[in-house]
Specification:
Helix content: 25-40%
Radius of gyration: 18 Å
Number of strands: 13
Largest sheet: 9 strands, mixed
Shape: globular
CATH superfamily: (Glycosyl)asparaginase
Structural class: alpha+beta
Number of domains: 1
Strand content: 15-25%
CATH class: Alpha Beta
């Protein structure tokens, strides 16, 4: 039995201690730990990496603090459009959805795409129709409404500006400048199998049906038992251009680098070279975890069968 490990993130960006109240900081710590505990319990009981990360993401999607599921931001049209992806490193099976509405847990829909659709990537109305066919839980618009997200959108809805999750104008008490509010989880189970998943509500005031890196296999999400499982959070356009998640795997497979070395190169060299801000979490088949970011902070944590339990926010 190999060491088993779970790592999570709740977004990266300009996250500074001086912008955080003690109560909000504690709420983030507690929420990250709760999600991590849910996924790790699956691993402890001999469950698969894929089921562990799904359990983790569901908890994060149900939490208003994070820009995914219930906490998703408003688009230009004043609605929530959500993206999610999941990948099984044992089989290289994957499922993704983009532009879905009223789906309580987009990660569950992505899992259904992977296991029951014969496809990898579904979008918009087609993904919605598939969700209904598969009996995925839907919620009314009111379920996804939060006043601070609404105020944030209202402050920029009449402009061509888009915002990466929390902005200074609308959320001075929460965050400064920018935060990339994706959630993600990666795991290595007792059998040494790897999985990765990512879920997001995208950008505030986004238009033209914009899609970021989160649901794109190889860009924001990737898993392969030979190398690693990766979930990214950041300015999606740059992560797509860098094919960031898959690049970590390639550096490990072709150059023989360790997980930490490969992630450091992608995050601190390749992404920075194209002004790509954000971070990523990763695990390998030996149960090693790495949490790397080039921004001011990243909501993050990992828990391992060797007794490690870390939750952190700032640099």
């Amino acid at each position: 039995m190999s060491r088993y490990t779970l790592a999570i993130h709740g977004g990266a960006g300009t996250i500074l201690k001086e912008d955080m109240t003690p109560e909000l900081e504690q709420a983030y710590f507690d929420s990250l730990q709760q999600a991590m505990n849910a996924g790790f319990a699956v691993l402890e009981q001999g469950g698969s990496a894929i089921n562990a990360i799904k359990a983790t993401i569901v908890i994060l999607e149900d939490n208003m603090l994070f820009n995914a599921g219930r906490g998703s931001v408003f688009t230009k049209k004043g609605v929530q459009e959500m993206d999610a992806a999941i990948m099984d490193g044992r089989t290289l099976d994957a499922g993704s959805v983009t532009g879905v509405r009223n789906v309580r847990n987009p990660i569950e829909l992505a899992m259904e795409v992977m296991t029951n659709s014969n496809h990898v990537f579904l979008s918009g109305k087609g993904a919605q129709d598939f969700a209904i066919k598969q009996g995925i839980k839907l919620e009314p618009d009111e379920y996804f409404f939060s006043q601070f997200r609404y105020d944030q959108w209202k402050s920029i809805r009449d402009s061509d500006t888009y915002s990466l999750d929390h902005t200074h104008q609308a959320l001075e008490e929460m965050m400064r400048d920018k935060k990339f509010g994706t959630v993600g989880a990666v795991a290595c189970d007792q059998a040494g199998n790897i999985a990765a998943a990512t879920s997001t509500g995208g950008m505030t005031n986004k238009k033209y049906g914009r899609i970021g890196d989160s649901p794109i296999i190889g860009a924001g999400t990737y898993a392969n038992n030979k190398t690693c499982g990766i979930s990214c959070t950041g300015h999606g356009e740059l992560f797509i251009r860098a094919v960031a998640a898959h690049d970590v795997s390639c550096l490990m497979e072709y150059k023989g680098l360790s997980l930490q070395e490969a992630m450091d190169i992608v995050v601190h060299e390749k992404l920075i070279a194209i002004d790509g801000e954000g971070g990523m979490i990763g695990v390998d088949a030996q149960g090693n975890a790495a949490l790397v970011f080039n921004s001011q902070g990243m909501y993050r944590g990992y828990k391992s069968s060797d007794g490690a339990n870390v939750v952190a926010i700032y640099k």
